[in-house]
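Exercise 4. Each item below gives a protein and its sequence. For each, produce the structure-token representation.

Item: DUF3850 domain-containing protein (Enterocloster aldenensis).
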Amino acid sequence: MKVVKKKILTKYFKAVRAREKNFEIRKDEDNIQIGDLIVLEEWDNFYGYSGQVVRRYVKYVLRNAPEFGLKEGYCIIGW
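Answer:
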């Protein structure tokens, strides 16, 4: 298991924190695997990092699925 930190815009951060959003579509640059811990850090384009974080364990990763509109080099991470 590894820890992966990612910034996330406030409107999406709030949805993740409220458990209304349980996935992210991201560039597949960290080789995220099931069981990894993703730390989402709230980010505002004007103010920067807020200091608030949400931690989730990865339960699902979808790669190489152009039939679902997923572009090459991207993945869907579910928690």
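Check: The chain has a mean pLDDT of 97.
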